[in-house]
Amino acid sequence: SLPDLDLLHDPEDELLCANLMDVVQATLGRAPLGAKRCSRLLMPAQLLAQVRTELLRLACSEPCGLRGALLDLCVEHGKACHDVGHITVDPAVVPTFQLTLVLRLDSRLWPKIQGLFTSGPAFTPLKLSTGFRVIKKKLYSSEQLLIEEC
């Protein structure tokens, strides 16, 4: 059976995760999605809550909790996946696991944003879909990757 998250609740990880979500939103706010284009990627409140819950769940079994995480942010559109940032959760801790958070653009926006991936200056706010994927890789073990689709 899955561990009860209430039993594994760590107030320090809760605070750290809240700060991490602020960093994630700031990173998405300046995401380069094309050669010369920037867009502010907006996380709906529902997506923010889901990602936060999932990151805490994935960190609860780690030796250093969320402090031992490296977080890679990617935005997927179509079959392409764009790297938008890398975050070391706590630079004072040797990372024990890597999380790749793959966010998706709201598919209803695709016709409106096709021009964003060509050159030329522009700035447009884009909303992310509430669907996402998290890939967890333990850095101290040879275990297979864990992929969570939400």
TrEMBL record:
It holds the Pfam family RTP801_C. This is DNA damage-inducible transcript 4 protein. The keyword Glycoprotein does not apply. GO terms for cellular component: mitochondrion. It is found in: Cytoplasm; Mitochondrion. Keywords: Apoptosis, Cytoplasm, Mitochondrion. Belongs to the DDIT4 family. GO terms for biological process: apoptotic process; negative regulation of TOR signaling; response to hypoxia. One of its GO terms (molecular function) is 14-3-3 protein binding. The keyword Mitochondrion applies.
